[in-house]
Every structure is written in C-alpha cells, then in structure tokens.
Amino acid sequence: MSKKVAIIGTVGIPARYGGFETLADYITRYLSEQYELTVYCSSKDCDSKPECYNGAQLRYVPLKANGVQSILYDVISLLRAISYADTILILGVSGCAVLPLFKFVSRKKFVVNIDGLEWKREKWSPFAKWFLRLSEKLAVGAADSVVTDNKVIQDYVLDKYAIQSTLIAYGGDQASKTDITDTALLRYPFLRQKYAFTVCRIEPENNLRMILEAVRQNLAISLVIVGNWDTSEYGRELRTAYSTVEGIHLLDPIYDQCELDQLRSNCQLYLHGHSAGGTNPSLVEAMSLGLPVYAFDIDYNRETTENAAHYFSSSAELATMLKDFKESTISDIGGQMAEIAARRYQWEIVAAQYAALLD
Fold this sequence. Notes:
Elements: E1 4-8, H1 19-31, E2 36-42, E3 52-53, E4 56-61, H2 70-81, E5 87-91, H3 99-105, E6 109-113, H4 126-142, E7 145-148, H5 151-161, E8 166-167, H6 182-187, E9 195-199, H7 208-217, E10 222-226, H8 233-242, E11 248-251, H9 257-265, E12 269-272, H10 281-288, E13 293-296, H11 299-304, E14 310-312, H12 315-323, H13 327-344, H14 347-358
Parallel strand pairs: 1-2, 1-5, 2-4, 5-6, 6-7, 7-8, 9-10, 9-12, 10-11, 12-13, 13-14
Antiparallel strand pairs: 3-4
C-alpha cells in the first residue's frame, strides 16, 4: 500500500501564485504514482475547486493561505492531515508554532521546508517577525527532516540550530522559449524593442524602486515588470510614479504560462532585485531560459547563480551597467545560466529529492 502524504502551506494547485504552489504542482506530477497524495488548498483563493489534480486529492480550507489567516489556515490543515497521513510535508513555518504538540501526540513524519527566513522580510510588523522567528525555531526542532532551498540558509540552520538540513532548490524547466505571436505583438507593442524583464511580487525587498530609477536614468533599454501592483500601497505608489515614464511598462500578473513565456523568453536581459529569501523560483526559471541575469548583490543570489551573473547594489550602479549593456558582451552569461540550471534546477531532480525524505 502506498504511503499517504499530505502537502500543506500553499494557496493550492493548479499553481498560479508562487514558488510553493509550483513546487506542490510538480511534486504531484512526478510522485502521484508513488504516493497517495493530498494537497490542502484555500477555497478563498481558488476560483475553481477540482477534487483531483495530477493524481492528487485536493481538500479545501475556508481561509486565506497568506497574511494573518495563514497561521490558522496551516493549523487547520495540519489537524485534518494528521488524522490519516503517514507523512506531512509543510511548506513554510506560519503554522509551525503548534508542531511540537502535534509531534508529541502523533507518530506522523513531518518534513518542513522553512522557506527563505520569512521573518527577515520588511513587510512584517515587529510582532509578526518575532512570531515567525519563533515558528521557525519550533519547526526546525520538531521536524523529522528540514528542507532549505539555498546553501546560505542551510548554513544558517546549521549555525543557529546545530541541525543539518537537506538542500533542495526549485525547478525552472517549466519555462520555455516561446516565439512571439501576432496576438502578443498587438497586445504588447514593446515586444518589437529591446527590453529588460522581471516578474515578481511587488514588495520593498525586491528593490523595484532601485531598478525603476536606474532605467529612468538611462533609457538605453526598455523595462517590463510583471507583478501585483494593485494589492498594496507600495505597489500603487510605484505604478503612479513610473507608469508614465517612456520605456517603462508595468503589467499586472500573468497566470498564463505561454503568455508569460513569450514576454520573458524574448527579453535581452533579466533583472532580479530580490534581497530576501533563498533560492527564488523566478530567478531559476530565467536561468533555465538561458537569459543573461543582472541580480541584486546578495549572498543568496550569488549562490543561486554560482557567481556567474552580473551584480548591482544601487540604482547608480545598475544604471551604469545598463548604459554599457551590449548583447554581444553578455551572451556568455546566458549560456552559463542555462548550464547551471540544467545541472541544478530540474523538477524531476527536485521531486526525487523530496521522495527520499517522504519515505
């Protein structure tokens, strides 16, 4: 009989939101014949509510998976999962303050991906940061296996908690080189020009103002950013300030993979401003496409790209890099990114690494 495995901590699948959702999606694609999988989903965030996907059962919790409700969302998912699952894969630490209790009262196996040191993110209040740091500590202490997605975070867990975690990143090979269609050209006329591209959540730690200012200072190349501009005051303020600047195109989220791939895979340059977290899924997707990468200079990004990208730490520095931009001089960067991604960021490899922990 196959082991019963529950996956909790995501908005849900099919994936259309972020890294954990895509991870859950590909785990079910590769492991549904090996395990009896159940994925917990938010009925508040999912438009359609299929009962089954990729061979996995989907169960719904009537709360939002992010923000304040995420704690209760994860706890309820845990309570339901321990009634039947042999192994529970927890993505993120929001609900892990109760994990020691659940570990004490059950004989279940808990595998926890602690994400990218969530408590460091600027968006959280002091209390939220304290709570997330406590949840991280309790999660690491109670889990049977801890997963980290970046060597920098793996080293942090070892230094902080004296626990050896398992390093598992993300796949990026779902992104594919896609030719630009006539329909896309009508909708996005800037595709006829040379442009830099980024896709991300619109949050301060992703250094979007730094990137936007650099492009405004130097319009040698256009800029396209895809993100959730209208879900925060920060995003709305940036859109108001920069959407009228010539050569800057600020687009709402694109959930259609083919449409996103048309925009992303045909850019001349990928800009990655993330300063928090570990290995970022959007970065490894860009690497899988063989895009030349200019990344914010932080240890997470250097580790992900094996120091083979170009790096910036200010608007002025990035503006100078863009001014000196020549496709012929950065084509080798794209080739190096593709080689690294082919070696490290494949979903089949990622799924096999998780399977080794779930058994």
